[in-house]
Design brief:
There is one protein chain. The protein has 373 residues and is of the alpha/beta class. The relative contact order is 0.13.
Length: 373
């Protein structure tokens, strides 16, 4: 029988081919609509903070929803500060330490000393604040270089939990950071007011809900015992200061020697209190200057021998090295940039801590060492 002109005979489709086509279509549709950020999300969960109120870690990144998708609100974080322990055994209880250092110049010895601290570095957060000056810019560059070297390429044991760098948005009080210029009596009120502002900015920005202790460590303190944190914490005091000295070459003895450096750790005197009573509201008492003899008992001159458990109450403290229970700062003790009972900065902090019921202490025979310019 002849076929009509122009007709076409269709082949019957193979069931296997149809099944394969259906599977392929389902795969394509799934690929197009499924999230493609699974790997990225997993990585960011480690690299970034979980939400914008997280304590200092890596920066919080606001999620970007797909077009048309509903943006869910950020999670609510709950912190129970009753679970934050502050004990004489901070290592055994895995207590988090915040080391804060105002910095105008970078000293390699300071960084090397940080690295040799035996406290577990994964429990240590570092915080720095630097001025926006020529010297401050150079210090920031040098600091960032060492941070990159340690955090990215250094041994795991040397890497710190996190590091925060701040740049202060107010002018320095003195044009030079040379030791002779910094310690002129005429510069002290303005200089220490700026230092107090820097310390407060650094503290209020970095203190997190998991912090147990705050170690204030000046960036020109270049030598401490490796067990500094454990040693100071073992006394279980709210505020405790070691004795800051300085190594130098003694020309008379023709050998290396040491001398007191920080004179802000002291016990008050009747003379100092009488001077304060005669001062105007904006005047401050200063220590270590012949022009203002206070006759306070200075911890710098109370050394009796090698490091031991000798401990004394203090009325004023210095900031070269100072371990503070985080609760002292949470209670409101800060560094007054204004005359507070005629005291300012770290000495004003000691007065404020005492007014809040936290007694500072000092260790005359436990020494740390300041850089010698």
């Amino acid at each position: 029988m002849a076929r009509p002109m122009g007709s076409v005979r269709l082949k019957k489709a193979n069931p296997c081919t149809l099944l394969l086509g259906v599977v392929l279509c389902i795969f394509i549709i799934f690929f197009l609509v499924s999230p493609s950020t699974t790997t990225t999300t997993a990585r960011l969960a480690v690299d970034t903070a979980q939400h914008h109120l997280s304590p200092p870690t890596s920066p919080y990144r606001k999620p970007r929803p797909r077009s048309g998708a509903e943006l869910r609100p950020p999670p609510v974080a709950h912190y129970n500060l009753n679970n934050v322990t502050v004990t004489p055994d901070p290592v055994g209880n895995e207590e988090h330490i915040l080391i804060l250092s105002p910095m105008a110049r970078f000293y390699q010895e300071y960084w090397d000393n940080l690295l040799q601290l035996s406290y577990p570095h994964e429990l240590i957060t570092l915080g720095f604040i630097l001025p926006k000056t020529k010297e401050g810019n150079a210090a920031t560059t040098a600091l960032q270089k060492q941070i990159h070297k340690t955090q990215k390429h250094g041994p795991e044991k040397d890497r710190f939990k996190s590091i925060i760098i701040l740049r202060q948005d107010f002018e320095s009080a003195v044009p030079s950071q040379d030791e002779s210029e910094r310690h002129k009596m005429a510069n002290q009120k303005e200089r220490r007011a700026v230092m107090a502002k820097a310390r407060n900015s650094l503290l209020f920005t970095t203190l997190g809900p998991s912090t147990s202790w705050v170690l204030w460590l000046d960036s020109d303190v270049v030598e401490t015992p490796p067990t500094l944190i454990q040693d100071l914490a073992s006394f279980d005091k709210p505020v405790i200061a070691p004795n800051c000295f300085q190594r130098f070459y003694n020309e008379e003895k023709k050998e290396m020697d040491e001398r007191p450096y920080d004179f802000n750790n002291w016990q008050d005197s009747d003379t100092a209190q009488q001077l304060a009573a005669q001062m105007g509201p904006d005047e401050i008492l200063l220590e270590g200057y012949a022009e203002m003899a206070t006759y306070r008992a200075l911890m710098a001159y109370m050394v009796t021998g090698p490091a031991d458990n000798m401990i004394i109450p203090l009325d004023g403290v210095g900031g070269a090295a100072l371990l503070v229970k985080a609760d002292v700062h949470r209670d409101g003790a800060m560094f007054p940039p204004f005359p507070f009972y005629h005291l300012i900065e770290t000495e004003g902090f000691a007065k404020m801590a005492k007014r809040l019921g936290w007694q500072p202490y000092g260790l005359p025979n436990y020494k740390v060492y300041h850089y010698n310019e």
